């Protein structure tokens, strides 16, 4: 019995396979002849044959339907959103304007033997404020305008003494310029501006408060930079004018491990400086006294053709205590002298620390030495009181207080190289707020 069932299953499978082959060529009218033969031989019953025939007909009909159906098209690609080009929005006028400045309040005390009649000491309180407005007219042109307190006739001080019975304090234009980013390697500035932000100088030769008048060109070539300048000093309707022509070549090198080095040389040619000395001697120009050598007719003995060379080094390996060192040397090739050419000067400064965050400290020591005709007196450091004829020391401590403000304590101790004057001690206590 078990053998008969296996034989029956095998025969049915064989019939289905043969029927598929035969059916692919011709559709049977009623029943496949092979099935009829199997029924007649008694291998399978008629019911089993008809069941096999029905299953075969169903499969063939389904196959015919699939072959007649049209092919399913591939899915349509997802359309890429159209890119709509919009015109770049120009920045608003207020986005192109930068308002900045600073306020400084100062106590100042002096001690110099015999300098103040019967009293060797002097005390005063001073105020300085410098608001400015700066605007990018285009992406290649900037204009700047600044006001400062101080005597308009004093080019080396922006301070106003707190005295005069609550009288109003003078304020004047200290900057008014246009700066042009001409090319990738050339910037041009014209007008009245703070040139010390654009070249490498010391406060011994150029006081921090001086703003020049004229033009300046900054040329950059990789690690090198050349600065050329033409500054106007005094115009005469009936004669030749006084002006300053100069230039400087600077190279910047170094790395994180060795620190950054800036080295350079410069040259200043003061043309007809006597016109400026005459302004000081007549009282029309205030600030520094004439400390260059004069003859009996109050004429400058020397011309001023000043060469300088310098090296600056800075290191930020210790972020809390960064170090900066400056060394400058000066020589006036136009010095004449009185039996000796007083034509040499130097400046050195060592600075350690920072003061931009609350509680931070910065310490600084500066050394000033200038023989009378090594530099031109008029724009030199005013706080030493000796301008070009100075042998002095300066000690600073700066303490970070709150954001954008700090205290500064400064002590000057200076005397003259040539003039017969006593040593001066000067103490300054400042609180500076930047806005």
Question: What is this structure's SSE topology?
Answer:
Blueprint: H1 2-23, H2 33-40, H3 46-68, E1 97-116, E2 119-138, E3 141-149, E4 160-161, E5 171-183, E6 186-193, E7 212-221, E8 224-234, E9 242-255, E10 259-271, H4 274-282, E11 304-315, E12 323-332, E13 344-353, E14 361-370, E15 390-400, E16 405-415, E17 424-434
Antiparallel strand pairs: 1-2, 1-17, 2-3, 2-4, 3-5, 5-6, 6-7, 7-8, 8-9, 9-10, 10-11, 11-12, 12-13, 13-14, 14-15, 15-16, 16-17
Helix pairs in contact: 1-3, 2-3
Pick out its properties.
435 residues; 17 strands
Largest beta sheet: what is the strand line-up?
Answer: 1-2-3-5-6-7-8-9-10-11-12-13-14-15-16-17
Strand count, sense and barrel status of the largest sheet are: 16 strands, antiparallel, barrel
State the helicity in percent bands: 10-25%
Q: Output the radius of gyration.
A: 46 Å
Tertiary shape: elongated
The chain-level structural class is mainly beta
How many helices? 4
Percentage beta strand: 35-45%
Uncertain ranges: 6-11, 14-29
Distance between the ends: 109 Å
The pLDDT mean sits at 88
SSE order, one letter for each helix or strand? HHHEEEEEEEEEEHEEEEEEE
How many DSSP E strands? 17
Describe this structure in words.
It is a single chain. This protein has 435 residues and is mostly beta strands. It has four helices and 17 strands. The protein has a 16-stranded antiparallel beta barrel with strand order 1-2-3-5-6-7-8-9-10-11-12-13-14-15-16-17. The protein starts with a helix and ends with a strand. Residues 6-11 and 14-29 have low confidence and may be disordered.
């Amino acid at each position: 019995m078990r053998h008969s069932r296996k034989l029956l299953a095998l025969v049915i499978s064989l019939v289905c396979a043969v029927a598929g082959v035969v059916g692919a060529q011709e559709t049977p009218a009623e029943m496949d002849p092979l099935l009829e033969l199997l029924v007649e031989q008694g291998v399978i019953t008629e019911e089993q044959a008809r069941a096999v025939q029905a299953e075969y007909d169903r499969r063939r009909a389904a196959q015919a339907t699939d072959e007649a159906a049209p092919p399913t098209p591939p899915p349509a690609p997802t359309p890429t959103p159209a890119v709509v080009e919009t015109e770049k929005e120009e920045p608003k006028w207020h986005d192109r304007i930068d308002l900045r400045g600073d306020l400084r309040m100062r106590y100042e005390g002096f001690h110099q033997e015999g300098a103040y009649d019967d009293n060797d000491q002097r005390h005063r309180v001073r105020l300085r404020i410098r608001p400015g407005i700066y605007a990018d007219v285009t992406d290649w042109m900037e204009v700047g305008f600044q006001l400062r307190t101080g005597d308009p006739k004093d080019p080396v001080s922006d301070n106003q003494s707190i005295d005069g019975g609550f009288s109003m304090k003078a304020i004047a234009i200290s900057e008014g310029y246009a700066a042009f980013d001409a090319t990738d390697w050339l910037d041009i500035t014209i007008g009245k501006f703070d040139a010390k932000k654009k070249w490498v100088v010391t406060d011994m030769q150029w006081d921090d408060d001086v703003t020049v008048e004229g033009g300046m060109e900054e040329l950059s070539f990789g690690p090198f930079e050349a600065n050329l300048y033409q500054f106007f000093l005094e115009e005469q309707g009936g004669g030749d004018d006084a002006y300053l022509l100069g230039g400087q070549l600077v190279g910047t090198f170094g790395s994180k491990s060795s620190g950054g080095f800036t080295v350079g040389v410069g040259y200043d040619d003061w043309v007809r400086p006597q016109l400026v000395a005459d302004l000081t001697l007549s009282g029309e120009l205030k600030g520094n006294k004439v400390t260059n050598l004069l003859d009996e007719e109050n004429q400058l003995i020397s011309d001023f053709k000043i060469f300088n060379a310098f090296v600056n080094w800075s290191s930020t390996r210790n972020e809390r205590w960064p170090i900066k060192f400056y060394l400058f040397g000066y020589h006036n090739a136009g010095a004449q002298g009185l039996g000796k050419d007083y034509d040499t000067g130097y400046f050195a400064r060592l600075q350690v620390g920072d003061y931009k965050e609350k509680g931070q400290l910065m310490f600084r020591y500066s050394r000033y030495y200038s023989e009378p005709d090594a530099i031109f007196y008029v724009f030199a450091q005013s706080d030493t009181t000796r301008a070009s004829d100075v042998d002095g020391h300066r000690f600073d401590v700066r303490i970070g207080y709150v954001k954008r403000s700090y205290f500064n304590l400064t002590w000057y101790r200076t005397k003259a190289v040539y003039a017969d004057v006593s040593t001066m001690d000067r103490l300054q206590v400042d609180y500076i707020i930047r806005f």
